[in-house]
Design goal:
Elements lengths: L1 H9 L6 E2 L3 H5 L12 H25 L3 E7 L2 H4 L1 H16 L2 E7 L13 H12 L3 E6 L20 E2 L4 H6 L12 H13 L3 E6 L5 H6 L5 E3 L18
Parallel strand pairs: 1-3, 2-3, 4-6, 5-7
Antiparallel strand pairs: 6-7
Length: 242
């Protein structure tokens, strides 16, 4: 994925990465006898895993001649006007100096009642905050299907969505993956935020080699197109819709 990111950076596009995985990476420090991790152990796992996660991003970007800046977020960073302004300024400065912002929720301190709970909506709020042109959500499926493709062979891919209708919402199903905290429901919530902000959003499979290049070349995906503006008049480079 970083090879993909570097291609876009070299052609002058600005990229912000929102990532999860800290808890999963840190959970290897707990044994099976610990059972399901409670909130305290999850937060400890996040503290351990976040270091490993950021090191992987830093090393990958450094090999390609780019730096990065870590930003850990809480819901208050968006709810409080002063903190929201500080966050916008920080991200803009990182982009200005050529450091790729790599964002994650601060899972070490997040409480159930104050956390985002998923990176889909977090990413959409970051896109809204900075007026991004394009938001890409990488998933374990090719996009939005009429039914859960993990459970139904008759599921059909929806190539384009221009409005989040009750019918579209009914297509959403919880992710079959046991590792992620989001699913198609949260991705549609993110799509609503992005589209209301005039930002194009794409859902595509993240496990493919060079997933961003595949999307840019018109690969299988679902595009969410805002009512205001269209891909033809948005400055999103050479991206092609399938």
């Amino acid at each position: 994925m970083i090879e993909d990111v570097v291609r876009f950076l070299k052609r002058g596009q600005e990229v912000i990465i929102i990532t999860s995985g800290a808890v999963t990476l840190g959970s290897c420090h707990f044994t099976r006898s610990d059972g399901l991790l409670g909130i305290g152990k999850k937060q400890a796992a996040a503290a351990i895993g976040q270091v490993r996660l950021m090191l992987a991003f830093e090393q990958s970007l450094k090999r390609n001649g780019f730096g990065m800046g870590q930003v850990l977020l809480a819901r208050e960073d968006f709810d409080d006007q002063h903190r929201r302004g500080n966050l916008r300024s920080t991200l803009q400065q990182l982009l200005k100096v050529g450091a790729v912002p790599v964002l994650n929720e601060n899972d070490t301190t997040a409480a159930v009642e104050t956390c985002f709970g998923d990176n889909d909506r977090l990413a959409a709020q970051v896109a809204q905050l900075l007026g991004a042109d394009l938001l890409i959500l990488l998933s374990d499926v090719d996009g939005l299907f009429t039914e859960d493709p993990h459970r139904s062979s008759s599921a059909r891919l929806v190539r384009e969505v221009r409005r989040i209708t009750p019918e579209i919402e009914g297509m959403a199903a919880d992710s079959a993956s046991g590792r992620g905290s989001g699913g198609m429901v949260t991705k549609l919530m993110a799509a609503r935020i992005a589209m209301d902000a005039g930002c194009i959003m794409v859902i595509a499979k993240g496990k493919e080699p060079c997933p961003l290049t595949a999307i840019a070349n018109g690969g299988t995906s679902t595009w969410f197109l805002p009512q205001v503006g269209s891909p033809a008049d948005r400055p999103i480079g050479q991206w092609k819709r399938p």
